[in-house]
Amino acid sequence: MAYLTLSKITKRYGDALVVDDFNLDMEKGEFVSFLGPSGCGKTTTLRMVAGFEIPTSGKIILSGDDITSKAPNQRNVGMIFQAYALFPNMTVAQNIGFGLRIRKEPESAVTQRVKEMISLINLEKHADKYPYQLSGGQQQRVALARALANRPQVLLLDEPLSALDAKIRVSLRNEIRAIQKTLGITAIFVTHDQEEALSISDRVVVMYDGKVEQLGTPSDIYNFPKTAFVANFVGTLNTANAEVVDPAKGLISVDGVQFGTTKDLKSMKKGDQVRMSIRPERFSFASEEKKENVLDCTIENITFLGSIVRIQVLIGNTKFYMDTFNNPFLELLKVGEKAQVTCSRQAVLVLDSPIEATSPQKDLLETDGILGSV
Amino acid sequence: MAQTSLRMPVIKTPSNLKNWLGVTPFFLFAILFLALPSIYLVQGSFLDQNDQFTFQNYKDLFTTPLIVDAFKLSIQISAVTAIVGGIFGFLLAYAITVGGLPRSLRSALITFSGVASNFAGVPLAFAFIATLGRRGFLTLLLKDTYGIDLYQSGFDLYSFAGLSAIYMFFQFPLMVLIMVPALDGLKREWREAAENLGASNLQYWTRIALPVLLPSILGAMILLFGNAFGAYATAYALTGGRLPIITIQIGAQIRGDVLHNPGLGYAMAMGMVIIMAISLAGYSWLQKISERWLR
Amino acid sequence: MNLLSRFRKFSFWSWVWFILGALYFLIPLYATLRHSLRMERDVIGFRAYERAFADPSFLETFLLSNLLAVATIIASIILIVPTAYWIRLRVPEARRITEFITLLPFVVPAIILVFGLIRIYSSPIGIPFTGINLLQPLTTTKLGTYTLIVAGYMVLAMPYMYRSVDTGMRTVDIRTLTEAAQSLGASWFVIVTQVILPNIRSALLSGALLTFAIVVGEVTLASFLGVDAFGPYLFLLGQHRAYEPAALSFVTFLLTWFAMGLIQLVTGGQGQAAGAH
Questions:
Q1: DSSP character for A237?
Q2: What DSSP assignment string belongs to A39-108?
Q3: Chain B residues with CB-CB distance to C218 below 8 A
Q4: Nearest-CA distance from B209 to chain C in Å?
Q5: Rounded CA separation A224/A36 (Å)
Q6: Under CATH, which number does the domain C51-267 receive?
Q7: Strands, E assignment, A248-372
Q8: Looking at chain C from residue 146 to 165, which residues have their Cβ under 8 Å from any Cβ of chain B?
Q9: CA-CA distance, B178 to B217, in Å (whole number)?
Q10: A203: pLDDT strictly greater than 60
Q11: In chain C, which residue's Cα lies nearest the Cα of B27?
Q12: Smallest Cα–Cα separation from C117: which of C83, C91, C153, C67?
């Protein structure tokens, strides 16, 4: 049986359906991220696990107990807030010991545990400082220690890194993940930053408009997005309108240029309109070995992004972005030159989503994904 | 606080004499109408009947019964109205912020507090005379309907108790106006974090919310103290000078040297200023602390 | 489920405090109103109001207080706005001492202030050791007295006026606006009239309304300086009449309410307290 189960969780505020049929089974020690844009329901779902909201319908079962309607101070879950929420009138040590003292643990046990926690987060020298004397990153670490001191069954993190500087965000998320692994504690991590979610999670739940769009490992989510939203939201993506040419052979046409795909098109007919997507990094320059999907193109623009070079190519009448690792030989490429690029059939994603076609320029969407930090 | 980023240099235009010229009118005004009068009083307090320098006036402050009693009375009434006003004002502020009353009541109370705290003085005294005076509305209501005779049982509006009751009319609102922002400053996450760590509502209030609010509450009470301490018109309108609080005595001294010793009169005034200054210092210090926590 | 029951318990006590507070505040006001309507035996009428308003002394003193209020407001604006502006823009070092000065009126309440003002300005001000008099005693002339009381009122209102204006300027970041205007070629006149004043309009209005409320009801300065203002008039009225004072007190309350309500409208939020008199 799963350690934490969210079953058919729904939340309504008046007429607004904020969370719609959320289902999740988590194993003990698993690290799951809820990923999605603002307003998608990820924080609301987390708060239902914490007890600050009560589901309109559905059940939450933790280690065999139905905790759906339990008061927040009766559940044994630890919560980390975006705004740290450290008690300003208490020192670091007092903050961390708060939960234990509430439980009336003997003072010696409390001191011992607080000491353990402080060394876990490496803030020994700051034990007697007040929150206003600490930086954001330090405060969040104290918040983490405070939640963990109570030995919670689940750790809930509500966008804990959003208020911090970029550099701290990266180091702290790794620290959080390391601590979580060491302690073997089950954790749910809410974020709108896909890089965070993909880099530290065992599994990711992508949410949009209250619904679960996809649940899978980071690699699944990135490489095999099931819906257009997931494909757009996670990572950079080329998208274009396409037409089915040959369902049996898996061929589609983007404004006249044929792409072969491994996607099963047998349920479609020739002439069906679909959306085609492909990740920029799945393109490469044609060579002797690569024979699938060889396409003629013209080089329109070359952008140097550091370790990656982003080349804008015109394939037929459609612009595509192609990302390739930095290589001094790329300097030899010139704008206006003709070249041949190739991509595997597996890389060509076909999504028949109801999203309307936007202008070609807009098709080439950029998100602040892995490439954003280059 | 640990700074991880470089501080931007403050762009200061070279402040030479010409720039300071711009604030001279204000300083001149302050000197003429604030500093000079004060200095005159200070100076006067150190002079005896023969215009010689002396500390005697200040010593006499503690030995002249009239003065000692006046200060005692003023301090008592200020302390009582500060504490009672502070507590009930806090409860009112609590009711309209964290206490969950409708938004409309909150704006109503805040607007009214602004009005009530300005309503002091003569009209306020009259209002209470009309309510609790010998033929006041409430007095008669209690007598005729419930058979309770206030004045028989020793109540007198024109007394310490009466004046305190009247002072509440501007003490409660002042407390409300100060505490509402402070209560708003209680972050929702603190309560949620406390609950999450197992605390009950009471534990949250006793261990976190009240300690965090304490500097604000104490500071506000000190402000209330100073507020009552310096009040003159209300008391004068009520009892015409029969209730010998310090401000009334100073008023008497201004009109006609009742002490027969101008220097002592100035010392009396300075005694009042010193007490107000201590209050202000206490309030400022507590403000600083509360700002740190409630930012 | 316990969340709901907990919430209900919250609200119960809140209502208790609120209702107690409402009773405490409203009963005296009601009593005043009631009293003011009972001038004619057994009849609820506005007789008291008629007589109060018809009294020529009322008109004189009320008018005078209003004029003094307006004078105070104008003088305060002329003094404080440029000062606050100048400090923000050119002399930030002066900020601390200026803020300290604006806190002093709290330490020097009206009774002490008037004490000092009278003693100093009832004798001529001259250069020490010479026979030269720079200023005749202010208290001996009507104009002098009025100047003195307006200055006194300015001191009383100063903390609120300054704070209001300063906050208003900070909110709109007057410094950046000025620099933007300068870079676009605006002259000082344009900057003052089109950049500064319009942007602190609500702060000025709220400060002005508060000053108005303070001045019209003020008694201490007026009575000791011998100014026939509304405050002393009302006090005197209370010695001789029974119903008219109640009527005027109630009117004062309505006026104050009106002024504060305007402030709320203009600032949209925090009330302002002027403290005891």
A1: B
A2: TSSHHHHHHHHHTSS--SEEEEEETTEE-TT--TTTS-EEEE-TT----TTS-HHHHHHHHHHHTT--HH
A3: 121, 233
A4: 15
A5: 17
A6: 1.10.3720.10
A7: 251-254, 257-260, 273-278, 284-285, 294-304, 308-315, 318-325, 338-342, 349-351
A8: 151-152, 154-155
A9: 9
A10: yes
A11: C98
A12: C153
Q: Please check whether residue B250 is in contact with residue B268, taking contact to mean a CB–CB distance below 8 angstroms.
A: yes
**Which chains are adjacent to chain C, needing at least 3 Cβ pairs under 8 Å?**
A, B
The average confidence (pLDDT) of chain B is 87
Tokens linked to B162:
């009466």
> Is the confidence metric ipTM above 0.90 for this complex?
no
- Do A81 and B294 make contact, defined as CB atoms within 8 angstroms? no
Interchain contact, A54 vs C3, CB within 8 Å: yes
Interface of C with B in 61-120 (CB under 8 A): 79-80, 82-83, 86-87, 90-94, 98, 101, 103-120
* CATH of region B65-290: 1.10.3720.10
State the CB neighbour count (10 A cutoff) for residue C57: 12
Give chains near A: 3+ CB pairs under 8 A. Answer: B, C
Tokens 């500093």 sit at which residue?
B35
Angle between helices B210-229 and B160-184 (to 10 degrees): 140
Cβ-contact C201, C179 below 8 angstroms:
no
d(CA C178, CA B196) in angstroms, rounded, equals 49
pLDDT tens for each residue of B46-86 = 988 888 888 888 888 888 888 899 999 999 999 999 999 99
**CB contacts < 8 Å between B and C, how many?**
282
Which element (helix H / strand E) includes C22? helix C2-36
Task: Domain ranges for chain C, please list them.
Answer: 51-267
Cβ within 8 Å of residue B110, ≥6 positions away:
B96, B176, B177, B180, C264, C270, C271
Number of C-alpha atoms within 13 angstroms, CB side, residue A310?
Answer: 16
The per-residue pLDDT for range A69-116, each reduced to its tens digit, is: 888 888 889 999 998 899 998 999 999 999 999 889 999 999 999 999
The torsion defined by the Cα of B121, B122, B128 and B133, in degrees rounded to 10, comes to 140
Residues paired with residue A320 on neighbouring β-strands, in sequence order = A313
Q: Which helix (H) or strand (E) holds C99?
A: helix C94-107
Integer Cα distance of A119 and A116 in angstroms: 5
Determine which of A199-208, B108-117, C44-53 has the lowest per-residue pLDDT on average. C44-53
Domain ranges, ordered by start, for chain B: 65-290
Say yes or no for a CB contact (<8 Å) between C219 and B233.
Answer: yes
